[in-house]
Structures are given as structure tokens and as C-alpha cells.
Design a protein that fits this description.
alpha+beta, 7-stranded mixed β-sheet, 15% strand
Amino acid sequence: MNNLIMLHIYLIIMYLIYKYLYSNSTHFVANRIFLWLIAPGAILLAYIPRLFHSGQMFAKVMLPAFVIHPGHSILPDILAEETDHFHILKIIYFSVAAILFFRLLWRHFRLISSLQTEKIEKQEGIYIIRDSGVRAPYSYFRYLMLPAETAGTEAEKLMIAHEKAHIIQRHSLDILWLNILAAFMWINPVSWLIIKEMKKIHEYLADQNTIAGMPDKRAYYQLLFSQYLNISPIGFINTFSYLPLKKRMIMMKKKEDLKRSFWRYALLLPFTLILAGFSYAGRNMNGSPVPYNEFQKVSPLSQNEKVYTKVDEPPRYIGGNEALMAFLSNNIKYPRQARKKGTEGTVFIQFIVEKDGKVSNIEVKRGIGDGCDQEGIRVVKLMKKWIPGKKEGKNVRTKFILPLKFVIKKNELPKDKKSAK
């Protein structure tokens, strides 16, 4: 869940960087690329710790988390998960995302189907459809819809030139891509604002392409005025009159200071490095490896042998998970300091189950402090022999993870903590 929250935070930060530094720039191609990459960049930044440390931070052989309460009750997290509100929120979040995604696909296929009529005129790989019911021209992929009453006029030539720019530059692909991303990030209004910004860039690019080399631009400006109010209600097509007219006129006439633009875009590098550094460093927040060297004793006979993180048969506690729960219930204690402060979270204890079943190389790979990490180490040290892991029928040294989830119920909190909540 933390990664999902960070994803939305990074999405907002990157959008604000674009909005306040680049949205008024006339480097439309660069801005288009930036908008394309905002969501993937946010995803990458949010999951940097997992990408770089998933193979190092945790062994692949892992038990389900065991939940520890101050009352010494122990249960597997798979049972607690059913009442975990974050789990419920995740189900709701991804259910809505799935509905929006399939709704988008349905609208896409329905529009493509409706555009495949008998009145299609093919021109240079573009399918032109003239319809009396169309108020303003629009395009979607290679389909171009035009008002029937403008057929053969100079206005239609300008409309076709404008919409051809959308089609040739594949603007519909941008909108479809951003709508898919927005469906999966639906809760964040920024994902929809990015689509709005991309549509602006599309219009600027199409305007730029249409008036390039045009000696007299007045006819094009007059056409924009006449079409300004005829905006199509379909949200994922390229419409001729999408933007407020004043803004489009300004951008068509605006000339950029190249030197200033260079430094503005050069700022992207330090911004990216800062965000990446923040994401990378974030793994240390309640998640840095906490070594306990006094427990790092390994048998001289086995210390040079390979340690496996993936085996045919993982190590098993003698008696199974029920026996492990009983062992934890009898031995683990919720640290007084953690209970006093209301500290909660999961401690990941990594250790090696040797070929003879003994536990060695105990360390905390992700801790929460306030004595919980030390308590996890203490309890693992007390464990008896395990049934060792097997690879190709032979006992092997296996790296293992035991997650211990420390949870305090409201009625178990100190009085001052209850009132604070």
C-alpha cells in the first residue's frame, strides 16, 4: 500500500513540475514526451526500492507474517488480512480501476465500429467521413470526421490539414495511453489533468503544422473563431476547437528564448535525481537492514557452501506452522517501549537454516525499532532445529524470512494513546 501512496505523491510532484516550468513553453514535442513519461516515471520512482532491493532485501523463501498482540495472541496474517482495512481499500481501488479500464475499451471499440460506414473516402491512408450530424471536425487514429456542409470549401481544406497533423503524429495513441493510465490511477485527479494538458499540446502541434509556410494566416484564425463553440462531447478524440481560442493564438505567435529554454529543461536532471534519491533513501525508513553481528556465527564446515534462496522443498518448522505459532505464543513478548509508544509494523527476520536444521546468520532485514527488532532476534535465537530445505533431494543451506507483525488493538493501547487516537 505504501508504494501505491508514493506513486500518487510522485505523480502530483511531477505534474506540478510540468505545470509551473514547462506548460507555457513552445517546445511542444519535448512537452509531449514529458507528459507521456509522467505516469511511468512516477511508477518507477515509487517502486525503486523494490526494483533494486527485492532480490537482496528478502529471501524468496518466506513464511506468512505472524501477528503479535500485547496479549500474546499469535495468528497468521492471512487471517488478520481479512479484517485489514487496507486490504479492503485495495480491493475497492483495483475493482474501480478494472471497471474504468473495460469501460474505456468498450468506448474505443464502439467508436471504431461506428466510424466504419459506407461513406468513407480514403485519402493518403486516412479515412475521411462527411456527416451532416457533425458540428466540428474531429479525428481518431486514421478516421477523420468532417461536417458535410463544408465539403469542397477552403475551410474544409484547413480542417483536413489540421486533423491530418493529429493523425500523422499519432495523437490518438497518446490519449488512449493516458486514459488507460488514468483508469488505473483514477483516484488521483492529476491523472485526468495530464490528459487535459496533452490535448493542449496536440492542438498546439496541429496549429503549428497547419500554419507552417502559410503566408496569410487570417483564414485559419477566422476558421478557429467560427468553430470555437462546436466542441464534441467525446472525451478521447482530437477536436478541431478543443482549446480556448486566446491561448491557441498566443502559442501560435509566441517565440521562445532558446537560452532560457535550455536552462529550464536542464532543471529536469536535478529534479529527477532528487526524486530518485528520495525514493532510494526511503527504503531506510523503517526498512534498513539492522545487523546483529553477535548472532552471525556460522559453522566453519558450512560457511563456504552455497546458500540457496530458492529450493525444491523449503525449510519447515518441526510440527508445521501450528507448532511455530505455539512456540511464538509461548516465547515472544510485545516490547514495553513499543507498547508504550504505540509502535506497530512488521519486522522481517532473515536467517539461514543449515543443512542440519540449525538456525544461523540471524539478522533483521527490515525493522520498526523500539525493541521489536531485538525481540524478533531473541525469539529466533531460541528456536530448535528446523527440517532443512532440499534441492535435488539433498539438504541445502537455505536463506529464510520470518515476518513478525506487531499490532496493538485500540483496547490494548495506553490511556494517553487511546485519547490521542
